[in-house]
Amino acid sequence: MPLVTFEGIEGSGKSTQARRAAELCRVNGREVLLEREPGGTAIGKRLREVLLDPASRGLDPLSELLLMEADRRQHVSEVLGPALARGVLVLCDRFNDATFAYQGGGRGLSSEIVETIDRWTTGEVRPDRTLLFDCPVEVGLARARRRDGESTPRFEAEDRPFHERVRAAYLAIARREPARVRVIDTTRPPDAVFEDVRRHLEGI
Questions:
Q1: Which residues is 124 bridged to in the sheet?
Q2: Where do the structural domains in the chain lie, given as residue ranges?
Q3: Cβ(59)–Cβ(46) under 8 Å?
């Protein structure tokens, strides 16, 4: 069974759409596992706390990458790999494209470093389809900050140029891999966005 990943900048709406997609697949009789990164395992939840904590603002970019990939390795070995081997349809809210966008594009780590470490981490597990939820940075950040109120996670607290680099990196991935990555405009109403999600999931 395939791995479908949901990607996008902060406030793009991907998490809401991933939940709706999982519900649709279950209604249609599919065995579905809805996952997220970071934090898809017990160990991952502890890593997520460090990664999103505003008190971790001084985290070195390479350290951040290694923590993200440690979370992913645990997730792949403990959850994703076994589920895919059993034939379960896996929907994952962020996967390795997020690392290329955030730690590569946003933090400026070299693609060689990111690719090498990510290859060790993911092994044979690769997304079969990726839905990239795209909107202007100002729209996404406004949504995210309304949602989170005063408890702003570390990544949302980054300046606008950081988020612009993340978005640009995501769109560059989509241009390189149009057969896998489908870009969905999330400036539209949620139901219109979900219709695109439903269409892109057909045949999966």
A1: none
A2: 3-201
A3: no
186 contact partners, CB below 8 Å, separation of at least 6: 8, 12, 13, 133, 134, 135, 193
Backbone φ and ψ of 42, nearest 5°: -60, -45
Q: Which pLDDT tens digit goes with each residue over 5-32?
A: 999 999 999 999 999 999 999 999 999 9
Q: Which residues contact 65 (CB under 8 A, 6 or more apart)?
A: 99, 103, 107, 109, 113, 114, 117
Give the C-alpha separation, 73 to 75, whole Å: 5
Tokens representing 6? 């949901």
Side-chain-facing half-sphere of 96: CA atoms under 13 Å: 26
pTM of the model: 0.95
pLDDT, tens digit, for every residue of 38-90? 999 999 999 999 999 989 988 999 999 999 999 999 999 999 999 999 999 99
In CATH, the number for domain 3-201 is 3.40.50.300
Q: Which two tokens stand for residue 88?
A: 């379960």
